[in-house]
Amino acid sequence: MTVPILNASGCLDALVAPDVARSLDVFVTKTITPEPRRGNPPVRIAETDHGMLNSIGLQGPGIDTFVAEHLPRLAELGTTLWVSVGGFSAEDFRRCCDELEGDERVAAIELNLSCPNVEEAPETAAELVAAARATTSKTLYAKLSPAQWDVAAAARAVVDAGADGLSLVNTIRGLALDPATMTPRLGLQVGGYSGPALKPVALACVHSCAAAVDVPIVGMGGVWSGLDALELVAAGASAVALGTVLFADPFAPARVRAELGAEVAARRHAIPSTALKTPLSR
Amino acid sequence: MRSERLTVRGNEAVGPYSLVRLGRGQLEAGTPGQFFMLEAPGRVLPRPFSLCIAPKGELGFLVDPIGPGTIAIARLERGDTIRVTGPLGNGFDLTVPRPLLVGGGIGIAPFPYLSERLGGPPALLGFRTAHHAEAAALVPNAEVVLDPTFVTDALPDDPGDVLACGPEPMLDALERLAPASQLAREAPMACGYGACYGCVVELDGAYRRLCIEGPVLRAVA
Description:
The complex is a heterodimer. By secondary structure, chain A is an alpha/beta fold. Chain A has helices at residues 18-22, 63-75, 90-100, 125-135, 151-160, 199-212, 226-235, 244-248, 252-266, 272-275; strands at 5-7, 26-28, 45-47, 52-54, 80-85, 108-112, 139-143, 165-168, 172-175, 190-194, 217-220, 239-242. The longest helix of chain A has 15 residues, at 252-266.
């Protein structure tokens, strides 16, 4: 069993840490928007007891500068490249996908439909996917929020709209207070919650969506070890992305890959590839 | 970038601070003012520390136990192991003719190693209490002031080349008083190597990552 290891979008800059990017099977960029974005005012990071909050706000160069200046350098890494795109309307997604259409350096596009730190688009996730689908022939992964009552219904909708795969899950909105002042620790008060606390949430989403749709799923949310990765695979993921753990351990990809291999070997009579065929999954 | 599990060789109290010494492994000491990310046992994220002392085969960090992460690190005991990544970021420019080290509180942390590399230049250190000021013993040639006197009150008229680390108001004041100074700044940081975009500071009108552009920045006054 080979499980590709990716980074979660926004959790690694391949241009400043190329050796870390090369240790992945796929490098996923930070979400690119049509226009440059300044990002949110500090404070942007707050650790909590079992996770962390971030309030970055899609800081980035915009799609034009990305294509002109970043993409050529990313292509030199030699790692399979996915570009995460985001925006605030169907037109934003269309514009980003259009800029990347036909570019052989980009293996797939991940549609960030669920950043908790920016305003939502007026369209539904399915409408955003449909706009992207109409613009590009590239493989499209839809990244969904776990903060919805029926994520499986959302999964069916985005797959019907043309998504080729799912990225599950994005962060969920959280708040942390300063113990002395009882005021929010982040500059914009609330942020995206990630880290170990998110793992059961991710497992539940992957499990529900794998039963609902028949497309590949990149599982992510609190993966710290090979065992965590194996659990996501058992729940229905065919690839696993590392997020917050990369902040704590830049060389986690090689470690998680080795641990995952050992976990699989230790269970060779009940490996997840068979578990995947059981009612636990599709 | 290097990252390794290092073993604690010792942990001694210095006033209210802890001086945690680790076996160096394959990690380099780097330039004074660069920093390392130290795993905080039981916590999700590591914490950034500038290198305080660099004895042969060791890396030493001065820790102010003010929150759950720094408390966990300050409690490390000989034989414990933690992941350490570094050195990271940009340190002080050491090619200055008349260095003066100016520090406040835990901000004196990089000065013992910096002073060693600069041949023991004069230092001006400010602390809240005499207990905190016990850390001044780590820095040669140090003049110490205590609250309510600030280091900026004791700054000579012609301070020379100021290399500073300390609380933000102190650094902001130095930026006005000594325009050519090098200021080691701080920001909440998840990764330390440019991945998270958490530690941004405003430079030239844009948010830039302190871990990449700094942590030592030139005064821009």
